[in-house]
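Quick log. Single chain, no ligands specified.
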Amino acid sequence: MAKAKDADSAAEDMQKLPFEVALKRLEAIVEAMEGDDLPLESLLARYQEGTDLAQFCQTKLNEAELKIQQLEKNSKGEPVLKAVPDLEEQS
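-> predicted structure:
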């Protein structure tokens, strides 16, 4: 049960990370996995964290892409951000 709470806490903490920090952490994990002679358990833990970070970063990039696609200009030529439909409603 403690592992489930730890995983939930880690997921909540990740949601608070700025994209750039998450990306730097992901890069550090990749470097460590490529360069270090890690024990299997440590390697697996870093792999899991890396996949979580990669998914988080991809989600943030997708959200940013949607916002950019929704950017339009009004009749005065000023940029206006259209409301983005809820992603859950599109599914």
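Strands lie at 71-73, 79-81.
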